[in-house]
Every structure is written in structure tokens, then in C-alpha cells.
Sequence to fold (179 residues):
Amino acid sequence: MYLKMLQKRRSIRKYQNKEVSGEQIQALLQAALLSPSSRGQRPWQFILIDQEEILEELAEAKAGGSSFLAGAEIAVAVAADPGASDVWVEDCSIAATHIQMMAEDLGLGSCWIQIRRRQRQDGIDSENYVRDVLDLPDKLRVLAIVALGYPDEEKPSYELDELNYDRVHYNSYGQEIPN
Ligand SMILES: Cc1cc2nc3c(=O)[nH]c(=O)nc-3n(C[C@H](O)[C@H](O)[C@H](O)COP(=O)(O)O)c2cc1C
Fold:
């Protein structure tokens, strides 16, 4: 059941040294390519990374929250040409989420690493750094990198009765949905 899978999904930042198969990689990329996008423009570009040295370089993309990428089996950088869509951020966010949900379904762990609007310790813009490492065309913006691999840490599932139901309103703001 999809809801159970959503409860189980947690950000995983430690990965086993175990190969992610070609079929799994294909499914992850297909899930990304199946994402809905505004006006069906599909402005995204996905860069699959499986080379250890490149993962290590990308782990230094920002001041904090990216170092664990060095231990990932694979990663997918999600980028887009803003000229192809004014809502490329939304389109790329949906695609990154599709990758994360597909990963969960495949028994893989994943974590979003934010690149847009982030900097490295030395002040270099994270997008410029990633653009350089991956040899991306100048026109591409980089939203995020999704780190992937078999989980090497366990985290509790979310409980449905602990969700922030106070964030949900009924017909007008502040009104609760009747039981
Ligand atoms: C837009 C966005 C940016 C995020 N950026 C990072 C990041 O740069 N590094 C990181 O380790 N986790 C990042 N995360 C993961 C969040 O920290 C994580 O989803 C949140 O703490 C909730 O935990 P959960 O995913 O286990 O439910 C990001 C998540 C989102 C949605």
C-alpha cells in the first residue's frame, strides 16, 4: 500500500557497500522521466553518477549536509533549463521526489541534497561547483542531488496518529474537519 510506503520512507544517509543493479537504476530514471511537469514541458535533465571519485567531489558541494554523498552507491543530480520552463523548480522537485519514492519501493535508501541557493564553506555557489564537476552547460540550473544506496541505518516509520493534522483546514482556514 502506497501510504505504508510513505510512512516508512526516511532520509537515509548511510549506505551499504552493495551494488545497485542496472534494472534498479533504470527504474529510478524511468520514475523520474514519468514525472508530471507544467504544460508537459519536461524541462529536467538527470545526471546519474556512479563513479566514486565524482561522488567524493560532489560531497564537497556545500558547507554542510552533503558529506555523506561520498558513501553513496549512486546519485542523481536533478537540473533544468529555466528557459524551458518558468516553474522548473517545481518540476524538478516532483522528479526528485519520484526518484525518492521509487527508491523506497526498490528497498533502497535515499536523501535529498539541496544545491540551489546553497554555498560551500569557501563561499563558492554550490550550483556553480556542481556545474563544474559534472561539466553541465551554463544554462542549466541545479536543484538537488539525490543520494542513493542500500540503507545502512534504520529509522522508525512515521505513525499516522502523530501527523500534524493541525496543518489541515476545512473549507476555510482554522476550521477543523469534523470527525
Ligand atoms: C527541499 C529539501 C532539501 C533538503 N536538503 C537536505 C540536504 O541538503 N542535506 C540533507 O542531509 N538532507 C536534506 N533534506 C532531507 C531533510 O532533512 C529530511 O527530509 C527531513 O529532515 C525529514 O526527515 P525524513 O526525510 O526522514 O522524513 C532535504 C529535504 C528537502 C525536502
In short: The pocket of flavin mononucleotide is lined by residues 10-11, 13, 65, 111-114 (CB under 6 Å). The domain at 8-152 is CATH 3.40.109.10 (NADH Oxidase). The chain has a mean pLDDT of 98.
